[in-house]
Design brief:
150 residues, Chemotaxis protein chec, 6 helices, 41% helix
């Protein structure tokens, strides 16, 4: 499970260093092989261990291909997918087109989401959190969430 929010810097070549606490886990799960793609709904990137990505691809491939939502999901999520691998310094390269999509500058937030990570430009991450807080105050809490004990 990938947890936590990490503030990272993007180097001049477009690479980020994966936090130490996740390096061993990533190497054990997928031998450093990962897949990076765009989020279909948010201006962020998704980083998956290869095995988790393959499971997601299988689920997407079973969806009805003529459905407009399936087409959109495949074109955005699968179509922009890029294989990446941790280098010897535990860095991954974020291709320029993906950095442009997510408007990633020099400061990035890597947020663990359980089986994957979200990669956000730091300013966009902070704005997204503010937006979610404001929206959640306008809607009633769903029963499933209200029943959750923290």
């Amino acid at each position: 499970m990938f947890r936590g929010v990490h503030n990272l810097s993007v180097d001049a070549k477009g690479r980020i260093k994966v936090p130490t606490r996740h390096q061993t886990q990533i190497n054990e799960i997928c031998e450093g092989q990962m897949v990076l793609s765009i989020h279909p709904d948010d201006n962020c990137l998704l980083l998956y261990p290869l095995k988790e990505w393959q499971l997601l691809e299988q689920k997407v491939s079973t969806l009805p291909s003529l459905n407009i939502h399936t087409k959109r999901l495949k074109r955005k999520l699968i179509g922009h997918a890029t294989d990446c691998e941790l280098d010897k310094a535990a860095r991954i390269l974020i291709p320029g087109a993906l950095r442009d999509y997510a408007k990633i500058g020099k400061k990035i937030v890597m947020s663990g989401q359980g089986n994957n990570f979200e990669l956000w430009d730091e300013d966009n991450w902070n704005q997204q959190l503010s937006n979610l807080d404001a929206l959640s105050k306008k809607e009633e809490i769903p029963a499933e969430v209200a029943q959750l004990s923290l």
